[in-house]
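Appendix B. Raw example, untouched.
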Amino acid sequence: MKKFFLLFSLLSVVTLSCNKETPAAGGGDTPTGPSLVQIDPIITKVTSNAFEQGDQIGLFMDCGREEPWAANAKLVYDGTLFSGTQKWYEQADEAGLAAYYPYQENFSNTFSVALDQSRGTASSDLLTAFKSGVLPTSAPVSMAFSHQMGTLVVNVTNNTDGEVTEMTLSGTKPTAILNETMQTLVDVDVPDGDIVMYKVSDTQYKAIVVPQRTTFVLKYKLDGDKKVRNYDPVEFKAGETKTVNLVIEDEGVLEEHLDLNYILYHGECYTVLHLSNGRWIMNQSMRYVPKGKTISDNPADGNGVWYPYNSDGTTATADKTDAAIEARGLLYDHQVAFGAEITAENFKTFEGCQGICPERWHIPTHSEWLAIVGYSNHTDDDPKAITDKTAIFYDEAYNGGRIKTMGEAGFNWDFAGSIKRNSTEDRGSYLTTITSDSNCSVADWMGKNSVSYYMGSTGFTPSNTAIQRQFMSLMTNFSASYKEGKAQVAYSNFLGGYSLRCIRDAE
């Protein structure tokens, strides 16, 4: 029998109350003496068409006594029947029989599918049977076993030269609660789990799933690179198989699912926000690594792509975890984001450029950021600071965007921080300032990087273009006057490191 992790129990087997004066009837001949309990199974398994010799089940028998007659008795399959050392009682009492497969010596009232199903799914394929009104008999008791879990099958069409080496199912709860008749209900109080799926072939993966309705995510590796694919909501039902298709194209192919508020780009999933002015903007920061680049943990090396970081207010440390990158994205300098060298002669020519953004998307312009938050430092065309009270998130008390309000509307501030490098003569360094009681009133943001930038593409002429080239970007501002955070358009130097959120082209 295959080994697995099983947490399973019967809270109390529902049965007819014991009537010790009722003669044997209906369930077979009453034996003259105690005989072995035998179970004749009716079943279709996931792994084969029948039980296999040596398979084991757990059996519960309750005839209304204070304690069950049998509690998790182990019965073994001999190729035809399940039996063991468990015997019937002598009275002609009706009993309720409940059985499950596969057997586990220790059990509780829950069942969890294996989070690592890469070696097979049989250990997670919970089968149960329940029968009431059974009388002691020398004949085998026929019990129909049914699947209590659902199955997900992923059919893979790989149109690239790369190899898919791993598939993980995310977004499902892995634990079910069993009731008195061995039926399951998803345990909504447990966190979602990541299930490593079983590879049936190069074109198919499979996983056993607790019945539930959920919006799941597939994470897979293509030549070692992690990729993500989101799917529409699915109802997993006991004993049923859901089949989905995964079509993998060459990197760079864009899939837009704006009706579901996400896009897929370079194999990564980004959620997007539909603004009240009709525009779409990413509400997750870019984490794409352009070809020929690697991610650096040294802000002074001029690499152009850096990890996000954590700061204690004095010292900053790169956070290289997958979770940090997914939550906060990467930091880019403008040259890597634009995909071009930026010179003193051309820095004013990149407004609205696509850069490393998807097709039909681009790096936001000054006017696009201003239309969102309503306040900007002065530009080359306007010698004074600019206020636009008609902006989507303009807050008159803050004279700009109030970050807390924007977050509640779905902007999803990630506070990735930024790299400060003011000129070609400087060395880059992580900005270490963080939020505290003195400048922030939002408890969940305490200790976050207080100065972050979202990159812009409109150039601004600094005092010395030989060593400085600046762009109008969106900046966070926390202070005693702006304890819920102010968002405004400000200057960023082309060699610093910033988050990037692309905006969709206007239609």
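End of appendix B.
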